[in-house]
Write a structure and sequence with these properties.
The structure holds 2 protein chains of 2 kinds. By secondary structure, chain A is mainly beta. Chain A is built from no helices and 6 strands. Chain A has one domain. Classes of the chains: A mainly beta, B mainly beta.
């Protein structure tokens, strides 16, 4: 059973689609469930690969 | 042995822990750490380095999403990796069973303990939408190279 826009539904009644985006910023995996031509569920798991950095700027004195 | 000009490594961690104050500081009510939150922003928003405090402008809205976002788990204290201090949430940030129909591509971390909700960092990613599902942000490897917030 999964959450959908129509309430909890049995996964077997739905068409499942998945995808992955993998680049230098993130690895993102998404899963969608469709009921006929209607998107009723989409979840996203995003793994960030890099944060932000405060770093000193080299400067001649 | 010669002297070496340096920003002392431990001081970077100490900055993260609020132990230095070069300007007017605040009266802290306790020695405990601050609480942080994560808010999501539409791809059309303009969050960035100029942010000073949390703003609802451009924040996502939708089913089961509360303005201001969700609490961030910070069980692990800032640490040093070589000469780089780093910190990041100790658990994934999860927005559960939400519907966010308009594309979003950024998350703002901000200090929920501070009265003005001081902004900490903005992290961008590829645009996403969520439909009756979870949006989970998993943290990078926690070290001085990839940690979410670093002072090198």
């Amino acid at each position: 059973m999964i959450t959908t826009t129509k309430g909890m539904m049995d996964e077997s009644l739905l068409e499942k689609k998945t995808g992955v985006i993998d680049n230098e910023v993130e690895k993102t995996e998404w899963v969608e469930y469709w009921l006929d031509d209607e998107l009723v569920h989409r979840s996203v798991n995003m793994h960030l690969k890099q944060g932000v950095e405060l770093f000193p700027v080299a400067e001649s004195i | 042995m010669a002297n070496t000009q340096a920003f002392c490594s431990q001081a970077k961690v100490d900055l993260m822990n609020g132990l230095h104050a070069f300007g007017a500081s605040v009266v802290r009510g306790a020695t405990t750490k601050d609480a942080y939150k994560a808010a999501l922003y539409l791809a059309t928003a303009t969050r960035g380095a100029g942010d000073t405090v949390y703003s609802a402008t451009g924040e996502v809205s939708g089913t089961n999403y509360t303005a201001g976002g969700v609490a961030v788990t910070t069980a692990t204290a800032p640490a040093l990796d070589g000469t780089t201090a780093w910190f990041q949430p100790s658990a994934s940030i999860v927005f559960s069973n939400v519907t966010l129909a308009t594309a979003f591509d950024a998350v703002l971390l901000y200090n929920d303990t501070s009265t003005s909700k001081l902004a900490l960092s903005v992290h961008t990613f590829g645009s996403q939408t969520v439909t009756a599902g979870d949006f989970t942000l998993t943290m990078p490897t926690g070290d001085g190279t990839t940690g979410l917030i670093r002072i090198a």
